[in-house]
From TrEMBL:
It comes from the Bacteria. Belongs to the HPr family. This is HPr family phosphocarrier protein. The keyword Cytoplasm applies.
């Protein structure tokens, strides 16, 4: 990628712009340890800062324990805020992960 293309990509997604999405937890066991670990792994694979909120409690998107403390059971809604170069791609990846029930069979 040329420097001009890199600058164009950078300009199209400002690092300071915060994007937000709400997700419903649809897997059978909710945001348990394994699901939280997959969530964190997805976040860490993107150049973005993330916070997750449920019922007024906000935690960092790279904290497995923090995510588990949200006690997001099936049917709960979480709000994810992301900022950074890959914020939109990250939110898309999280949407897919959650819709796919974190890879769980049920």
């Amino acid at each position: 990628m040329s420097e001009a293309q890199a600058n164009e990509v950078s300009a199209s997604t400002p690092a300071s712009e915060e994007l937000k999405r709400e997700f419903s937890i649809v897997n059978q066991r909710g945001l348990h340890a394994r699901a939280s670990a997959k969530f964190v792994q997805t976040v860490e694979n993107h150049d973005a800062d993330v916070e997750v909120e449920k019922d007024g409690i906000t935690v960092g998107g790279t904290s497995i324990m923090g995510l588990m403390m949200l006690a997001a059971s099936p049917g709960c809604k979480i709000r994810v805020s992301a900022s950074g170069r890959e914020a939109e791609a990250l939110l898309d990846a999280l949407q897919t992960l959650i819709a796919d029930r974190f890879g769980e069979e049920c």
